[in-house]
């Protein structure tokens, strides 16, 4: 296993498609995602794009534990892209607290631009 404390040399698109990580109790999924983002942030590995769609858009509207990490990653130059269609579906369009609201074409473009795409 390589040391996670390294500087990234290729671009990464991180896809957040649900309100957590893994297949566990919802609260534990959120805990896992928070830890993942914290470790990613601490490793100085900056995702070029963090794309949120489907239930993942719920992460940018509330007081979730991951919101602070997303805001810090964005302030360091990460591109946080939130699906407009998904926000509309969940009735959350006017509650976005971090990121840029875009369309599925923007998410596709971010995926194509990245050297590596990780879906959580």
Architecture overview:
- With 120 residues, the protein is an alpha/beta fold.
- The protein has one domain (12-119): Hypothetical Protein Ychn, Chain: A.
- Helices cover 36% and strands 18% of the residues.
- The protein has helices at 26-42, 67-75, 84-90, 104-113, and strands at residues 12-16, 49-52, 79-83, 100-102, 116-119.
- It has a 5-stranded parallel β-sheet with strand order 4-3-2-1-5.
- The protein is globular, with a radius of gyration of 14 Å.
Give a brief description:
With 120 residues, this protein is of the alpha/beta class. 36% of the residues lie in helices and 18% in strands. It has four helices and five strands, in the order E-H-E-H-E-H-E-H-E.
Task: Please estimate the helix content.
Answer: 25-40%
Poorly predicted residue ranges = 1-8
How many strands appear in the DSSP assignment? Answer: 5
Strand order of the largest sheet: 4-3-2-1-5
CATH homology-level superfamily: DsrEFH-like
Please state the second-level CATH architecture: 3-Layer(aba) Sandwich
Class of secondary structure makeup? alpha/beta
Q: Which fold name is given in CATH as the topology? A: Hypothetical Protein Ychn, Chain: A
- Binned strand content: 15-25%
Features:
single chain; 120 residues; alpha/beta; Hypothetical Protein Ychn, Chain: A; five-stranded parallel sheet; 4 helices; 5 strands; 36% helix; globular; disordered N terminus
């Amino acid at each position: 296993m390589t040391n996670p404390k390294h500087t990234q040399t290729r671009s990464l698109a991180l896809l957040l498609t649900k309100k957590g990580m893994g297949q566990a109790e919802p609260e534990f999924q959120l805990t896992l995602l928070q830890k993942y983002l914290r470790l990613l942030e601490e490793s100085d590995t900056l995702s070029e794009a963090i794309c949120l769609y489907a239930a993942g858009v719920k992460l940018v509207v509330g007081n979730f534990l991951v919101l602070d990490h997303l805001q810090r990653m964005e302030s360091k130059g990460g591109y946080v892209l939130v699906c407009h269609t998904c926000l509309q579906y969940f009735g959350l369009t006017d509650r976005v607290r971090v990121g840029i609201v875009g369309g599925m074409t923007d998410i596709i473009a971010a995926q194509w631009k990245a050297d590596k795409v990780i879906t959580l």
